[in-house]
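INFO worker-7 received task bundle
INFO bundle size: 2
INFO processing item 0
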Amino acid sequence: MRRDRHGRGLRGALYPATLPAATSRAEKFDALVLDALEPIEARWRHELTKLDVAVDDVPEVRRDGKADPSEGVLHDGSVPLSRLVPTGVDRAGLPTRARIVLYRRPLEARAKDPGELAELVHDVLVEQVAVYLGVEPDVIEGD
């Protein structure tokens, strides 16, 4: 570790890496997404082999001011919570896999506590997986 110019700065990490306080909000959210995805993936493992799940902080805003097509986007009012990106071809001409992108900051802003955030992330994942598979959300949860 480096010290400040007077030689009195922090000498190491504020918290040991083994303590929960050492993880960032983004890392906690990533773990929450993995926990919410686990039961869905366990049940639908064969159907979801060509699907990736990603997390972005905020939705991308286009500079030209035009709205992106809202197909595959799960909105809460005018703010996107997640997007289902279909398979396609990237700029280099290589094929891409289908991907569900969850937007961390809008989801965190809508939850009052960690329990509600976990439920919201689960609901959004169920909704997007249902759209990907072309079935009703109730089928994904097994109701």
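INFO item 0 finished
INFO processing item 1
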Amino acid sequence: MVMTTNTNTAATTGTTTTGATTTGAVTTGAVTPAGTGGDAGGRTGRIDFAKAAPKVFRALVGFDAAAREGLDPALVELIQIRASHLNHCAYCLHMHTNDARKAGESEDRLHMVAVWREARHFFTPKEQAALALTEAVTRVADAGVPDDVYAEAAAHFDDAELGHVLALILTINTWNRVALSTAKRAGTDERR
């Protein structure tokens, strides 16, 4: 999930506005997650995370931006797509597959991300190592991060790159949880 900010504001994502005012990257007023309805006052059972916890939201946006620094944009999207598959986050999956297409990613590769182990020839060894690490970190409760998976990633990324890859995996997992917890609806990317 990519967010845009400036020093004073943060973009809300995945919401439709009801009687709201939009100024630049900030939406103010009543916000209703798309497809969830709401009462006459524009309130729903789910919060607008950016509005409810703006300082936390801005910190997460900053963490996300710092994580991707120095990484190949195509790799960034592959990692975000794979974690979103695993977390069943349609909102983020829609967003990042669209971002990948805009960045020039092929439809063939996008279709193969979910089954990359069976379609390794679509991905470089470095991308495969990043996808394996993404799976291990995303499913960390299942088996931890196996030594062989970590060692393969460390063989393809220097320490600084590996730190950024890990940070990116952590941020997309957090964004997935934000989107799922607040009932974001696929196709409602409001970064634009």
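INFO item 1 finished
INFO post-check item 1: The two ends are 13 Å apart (CA to CA).
INFO post-check item 1: The CA atoms of residues 63 and 171 lie 7 Å apart.
INFO worker-7 idle
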